[in-house]
Amino acid sequence: MMRTGKRLRLAACLAACMLSAASLSGCGKEEKKRYKIMVIGQSKEPQVADYWKNVEKGAKDAADELGYEVTYLSPQDITKVSDQEGLIDKAKQEGVDAICIAPNNPTKLNAKLKAASRSGIQIFTIDSDVTLDEKSDGFTERRSYIGTNNEAVGGIAARQAAAILAKQGETARAVIICHSSTQNSATQRVNGFQDILNTQIRSQLSIAVQNSEGVLNGTIPPETVETKINSIKGTNYVSEIIYTDGTAKSAREIALKVMNEKPEVKVIFATDEAATEGVCMAVEEAGKKGSISAIGVHCNDKIKKYLEKGVLTATMMLNPYNVGYFAVFYAGSYLADMETIRDNKKDNIMEDGSVREPSIPKTVDTGALYVTSENLKDEAVQLVLNQIADQQDKDKE
Predict the structure, then answer these.
(1) CB 70 within 8 Å of CB 59
(2) Helices and strands counted in the chain (H then E)
(3) Residue 5: how many CA atoms within 13 Å on its side-chain side?
(4) CA contacts within 13 A on the Cβ side of 188
């Protein structure tokens, strides 16, 4: 019987093969070039190590299957942009064809990325994106972003949080405990959560007012109802966004302080793996299981146990293996299509006379699953969990 982790890998491979056939059809039967691709992660720090090891695993599997030469490197410290700048320089020195990078800052790497691009290296972002707006000193030559739709991750979590808060009354609030004030992925998750939470809960509370007994029997004047609804619409139901230093320990300390000082807080949204672990530690330590709804991002063995115990209400489980796999796949597809265009320029002229660009998506969403104790055993969830567990078991060997 095929192991679940292997089935996930097979699913990714089959998807890649289908996409490869579609994007590279008509290229003939020439031997595939061994492209040099450098994948640059965000950090080797223990609290996020499992995530990035799975990204590396996906990238290395794609390299083996597609015949590319892939190097995976990562800075030790997620806060030091200079470390990633050094790795970009290293990629230039080694003459790679493409860089797939998870930028630790959306703007501060752009000068180095522009220099790499000018030298002929194709740039792809993974997991977190750079600023693309040229007016904001953005990097416009990024070929594709491969990773989670982070605003959607925040938004899906917010829909569940809104349903929880609406049952708690108008004074109930949420707090966001965020792993970074600079990473694009963190900002997008925060924005997605805050925007959707406020939209959803304002709508639900307004409907509740309009359907209340006093309104229906006419004992509450219309002007009072209007004032009440306007007040609801003007309220921000996220009472605070608090940033950690990137560690579970920091998230735990922040969550304990929030639960002690803010009795109105009924939901805590943690924006990454380390923050989720820290919030869960705090909820369990404070004996708040059932009274505080913790919603996290990603899932590892520790987070899975918190779900099973009911300490964690839900988590948005990401797929780091797919991030690495499809980063290498699409980088190679782009490079191959570049060669096709270069070698057959006359067959790739557009109607306006310009030469067509290599055809890959500008954004590749690697997916996320909303996981609770109720759907933890579902096959789709188990596929990803087993891939993560396989890597964790390998690390213990």
Answers:
(1) yes
(2) 13, 12
(3) 15
(4) 18
Domains in the chain (CATH in brackets) are 4-17+30-148+319-366 (3.40.50.2300), 151-318 (3.40.50.2300)
**3-state SS, residue 254:** helix
DSSP 266-326: EEEEE-SHHHHHHHHHHHHHTT-BTTBEEEEE---HHHHHHHHHTSS-EEEEE-HHHHHHH
Cα angle 145-147-152, degrees, rounded to a multiple of 5: 105
Q: Is the pLDDT of residue 70 over 60?
A: yes
How much of the chain, in percent, has pLDDT values that exceed 90? 62
Closest CA to 71 of 81, 61, 59, 83: 59
pLDDT in tens, 290-344: 999 999 999 988 999 999 999 999 999 999 999 999 999 999 999 999 998 888 8
Dig out the tokens for 376 from the structure: 């933890």
Q: 290 vs 93, 157, 169, 310, 321, CA distance in Å?
A: 55, 18, 16, 8, 33
Closest by CA to 238, choosing from 281, 196, 181, 179, is 196
Cα-based angle 204, 209, 210 (whole degrees, multiple of 5): 95
Residue type, position 378, single letter: D
Question: Is 193:157 a contact under the CB 8 Å cutoff?
Answer: yes
Burial of 27 (0-12, 13-18, 19+ CB in 10 A): middle
Residue 347 has a pLDDT of 76
Q: Which tokens hold the place of 216?
A: 């229906």
Q: What is the CA radius of gyration of the chain?
A: 24
Query: Is 7 a residue whose pLDDT tops 70?
Result: no
pLDDT by residue (tens digit) across 71-103?
A: 999 998 877 899 999 999 999 999 999 999 999
Reported as a single tens digit per residue, the pLDDT across 46-61 is 777 888 999 999 999 9
